[in-house]
Write a structure and sequence with these properties.
Layout (H helix, E strand, L loop, with lengths): L5 H6 L10 H6 L15 H6 L1 H24 L14 H15 L41 E2 H25 L2 H15 L13 E5 L26 E4 L4 H17 L4 H22 L8 H15 L2 H7 L13 H17 L7 H18 L23 H21 L4 E4 L2 E4 L1 H15 L23 H4 L12 H5 L29 H4 L3 H14 L27
Antiparallel strand pairs: 1-2, 2-3, 4-5
Helix pairs in contact: 5-19, 6-7, 6-8, 6-19, 7-8, 8-9, 8-10, 9-10, 10-11, 10-12, 12-13, 12-14, 14-15, 14-19, 15-19
Keywords: Carbohydrate metabolism, Cellulose degradation, Glycosidase, Hydrolase, Membrane, Polysaccharide degradation, Transmembrane, Transmembrane helix
GO molecular function: cellulase activity
Catalytic activity: Endohydrolysis of (1->4)-beta-D-glucosidic linkages in cellulose, lichenin and cereal beta-D-glucans
Length: 564
């Protein structure tokens, strides 16, 4: 096949999809399970056939005697049937999740499985927000970013909604749900979550600038040892992207915790308030850079509530402009999330036009993942360079691996064998092959023969750029006193299991240096994408849950309005 540029692909008309039948669409909307009636036997019937029953009983007894005799005389095969071998993705799921346990801020929950961590930053907050302890540290330091934390929790929730049975089989369903709740509990502290309307929210704990020392960027110390006052940032008017992102996190988590009615309702109510705050700020801004966040948040609001008002907002012609290139990752997840709706339920006018646009955008991006096209380069080892050779390439590849598998599962579940890239038709298996290649690269199938996930495999990074992992647990250091640990060439005294580091350069080269975060730093966003990719590509469990995401949508809610 000749190589084609993405420009050529975008100029070609995508082949329209066959619309699913009404019966099929209604089968994808949750319905109550109807218990099967037990069959009853007639006593009269049994009595009239007593002779037959006695004869059958005699035959059964004779058969049992023969079977017992044979079991004692015939040779036995003592070889047990070997258990199913777990694939690497399944094995790596619990490892990757432990990274989030290592990033917990505040008073550690019971059963936290990271021995070298302790309670930390218990005094986060101020007069208006006295209790901001909790949440997660973003990367290798002690800063808590509401934006990256929100996106990470949403990705975890999405993976649970779609692949809950796979988490269950791996034994990690309760674990991942606990991690999500740790995040959402913290979010509810960052704004007036008891109000229906809000006017501000906390965007970050800890300062990264150099103007005020000590600060969380300047100091190299374990979070447990921080003894200086940590500032926090409150947003009032210019953070619609953050508010929409947090609305997505709360809305998606409300679906995950649908069995906890009161908590789920709290999450939905808070998500509505904070999404309204995002919209209010958006109307006062001329820039469109936050539109992708509004689409992402609005889509999750629709799935969490079933309210067509949100669907009307995200499919409004207002959002038909060209997306900002730097935010293509968020545009992609939004498009795929809404493509699911079109594939499974095919909403009619007035939603169809924009949903078709999202679907086409999804198809084009999936085409760009394939090696037949030259939108993105690859290393010689096979890693796709979605950030065009810039540092921290693995987090982009991990998220792409999740999205590719998810789209292939969407197509399969909607009885669609593949999709078109221009005139060329591709089966869904090529997306799974792509996803597998990226996950395998991350887990060790690369020119360095190193697993980029700490604690997985025999060889992995030992100098992760991480304050808590690099300083011995029993060493209490000052702000500047910890620098020697940052600059030390010794391996980290604490193993931060599950951390997917930033990864190699564009030539597959990797330097295990603590001081160079471009190679060795791990992040919440990267690891949430990794966990999602691992569970999607794992071979255990029952596959995609077609109905979970539609739990709030009623069969008639998408019907066209009757003519008046």
């Amino acid at each position: 096949m000749n190589h084609r540029t993405m420009t050529e692909i975008e100029e070609l008309e995508l082949t329209p999809l066959t619309q699913p039948s009404l019966e099929m669409k209604e089968s994808w909307v949750l319905k109550p399970t109807i218990a099967k009636k037990k069959k009853k036997f007639s006593v009269a019937c049994i009595s009239s056939n007593r002779k037959l029953l006695l004869w059958l009983g005699g035959v059964l007894c004779v058969s049992c005697i023969i079977a017992m005799t044979l079991s004692k005389t015939l040779p036995h095969d003592h070889h047990n049937v070997p258990p199913l071998t777990k694939d690497n993705s399944t094995i790596a799921i619990p490892v990757a999740l432990k990274f989030f346990n290592a990033q917990i801020s505040g008073k550690l929950p019971e059963g936290n499985n990271v021995s070298w961590r302790g309670d930390s930053c218990l005094n986060d907050g101020g007069s208006l927000y006295p209790n901001l302890a909790g949440g997660y540290y973003d990367a290798g330091g002690s800063i808590k970013s509401s934006f990256t934390m929100s996106f990470s929790m949403t990705m975890l929730s999405w993976s649970v909604i779609e692949y809950g049975s796979k988490y269950d089989v791996s034994g990690e369903l309760n674990h991942v749900k606990g991690l999500i709740k740790w995040g959402t509990d913290y979010f509810l502290k960052t704004f007036s979550s008891s109000s229906d309307t809000i006017s501000e929210m906390v965007s970050q704990i800890g300062m990264s600038g150099q103007s005020k020392i000590p600060n969380d960027n300047y100091c190299w110390m374990r979070p447990e040892d921080i003894n200086y006052k940590r500032d926090f940032t409150v947003c009032h008017t210019n953070c619609p992207h953050l508010a929409a992102e947090m609305a997505a996190a709360l809305a998606s988590a409300s679906i995950v915790f649908g069995d906890k009615v009161e908590y789920s309702a709290t999450l939905v109510r808070s998500a509505k308030a904070i999404y309204s705050f995002a919209e209010a700020m958006s109307t006062k801004m001329k820039s469109s850079e936050h539109w992708d966040d509004l689409i992402w948040g609005g889509a999750w609001m629709y799935y969490a509530t079933g309210d067509n008002t949100y669907l009307a907002k995200v499919t409004s012609p207002r959002f038909s402009g060209v997306p900002v290139p730097s935010r293509m990752a968020l545009v992609m997840v939004s498009s795929l999330l809404l493509t699911r709706l079109r594939l499974f339920l095919s909403p009619p006018f007035p939603y169809e036009d924009m949903l078709k646009t999202f679907h086409e955008q999804t198809s084009i991006v999936m085409c760009s993942y394939l090696p037949y096209y030259t939108k993105f380069n690859r290393t010689k080892g096979g890693l796709i360079l979605l950030n065009h050779g810039e540092p921290e390439s693995l987090q982009y590849a991990a998220n792409a691996a999740f999205l590719a598998t998810l789209y292939s599962d969407y197509l399969d579940a909607s009885v669609t064998p593949g999709w078109y890239c221009g005139p060329s038709f591709f089966k869904t298996q090529v997306l799974r092959d792509f996803s597998t290649s990226q996950v395998d690269y991350i887990l060790g199938k690369n020119p360095q023969n190193i697993s980029y996930v700490v604690g997985f495999g025999q060889k992995y990074p030992k100098h992760v750029h991480h304050r808590g992992a690099s300083i011995p647990k029993n060493k209490k250091v000052t702000c500047e006193g910890g620098w020697k640990w940052k600059e030390s060439s010794n391996e980290n005294p604490n193993t931060i299991e599950g951390a997917m580091v930033a990864g190699p350069d564009k030539n597959d080269g990797f330097h295990d240096l603590r001081a160079n975060y471009n190679y060795t730093q791990a992040t919440l966003v990267g690891n949430s994408g990794l966990v999602a990719a691992l569970v999607a590509s794992s071979r255990g469990g029952g596959g995609l849950d077609r109905n979970g995401l539609f739990s709030a949508i009623t069969p008639l809610s998408l019907s066209p309005d009757p003519e008046t």
